[in-house]
Design brief:
single chain; 191 residues; five-stranded parallel sheet; 6 helices; 17% strand
Length: 191
C-alpha cells in the first residue's frame, strides 16, 4: 500500500461500487461525486486535520458502500487497519467481497433495527455494543450518522466511541441538527 490517496484513473476500479449502490447508500450522488467526496474527506479531514498516518487504526461508523474505505485502501499501510460498520446488508456484503484481498480492511454488519435500512435488525441503536476491544482506534469517523438518531441512541454511541477510542485518539462526526432555530432560519431564507 502506498501513502498516496489519489484516485485510480483506470477504466475499471474494483473498489468503486455499482452506481445503484452508491445512489442508494450515499445520498443519491454520482460515482464521480462518490470518488471525489471520499478522497477530499480523507485528504483534508483525516490526514490534514486529524493527522492519521499509514499505520493508524481507523473505525468508520456508517461506512455504507466504502466512500472512505476506497481512498484509505491506498493510504493505510499493512501496519494500519480499517474497520467499517454499517446496518445495511447490501453495502456490507458488497464491501466484504470487494475488499476481500485487502487483509487489513474489515467490514461489520451492525444488526440494528431500522425502518429504512434493516427491517429485521435484532437490536436497537440505544443498546448496540461496538464489537471491538477497548482503546483500539486512533481515529473514528461518523459521516452524518447522528443526523438519523435520537438522543438516547446518540448517547450510547458516544459512550461506545469513548470506550473503543485510544486516549489520545480523535473522532470526527458530521451531522445536521434540525431544531426550532434551524427551522426558523430555513423559513427566513425562503421569504
Amino acid at each position: 500500500m502506498s501513502s498516496d490517496c489519489s484516485p485510480n484513473r483506470s477504466s475499471f476500479d474494483p473498489l468503486l461500487p455499482p452506481s445503484e449502490l452508491i445512489s442508494e447508500h450515499s445520498g443519491g450522488i454520482t460515482p464521480e461525486q462518490f470518488v471525489l467526496m471520499g478522497e477530499e474527506i480523507t485528504r483534508h479531514s483525516f490526514i490534514g486535520h486529524a493527522g492519521i498516518t499509514p499505520e493508524s487504526k481507523v473505525l468508520d461508523v456508517g461506512c455504507g458502500c466504502g466512500k472512505i474505505a476506497r481512498p484509505l485502501a491506498r493510504f493505510l499501510s499493512d501496519g494500519g487497519e480499517y474497520h467499517g460498520i454499517d446496518i445495511t446488508h447490501a453495502a456490507i456484503d458488497w464491501c466484504r467481497q470487494a475488499y476481500e484481498s485487502v487483509s487489513n480492511f474489515h467490514f461489520h454488519l451492525a444488526d440494528i433495527a431500522s425502518s429504512r435500512y434493516n427491517l429485521t435488525g435484532r437490536v436497537s441503536a440505544e443498546n448496540f455494543h461496538f464489537p471491538f476491544d477497548d482503546h483500539k482506534f486512533d481515529f473514528i469517523f461518523l459521516g452524518s450518522v447522528f443526523t438519523h438518531m435520537l438522543p438516547g441512541e446518540v448517547g450510547n454511541y458516544l459512550s461506545e466511541i469513548s470506550r473503543v477510542l485510544k486516549p489520545e485518539g480523535k473522532c470526527l462526526a458530521t451531522f445536521f441538527i434540525l431544531d426550532d432555530e434551524a427551522n426558523d432560519r430555513g423559513r427566513d431564507a425562503h421569504c
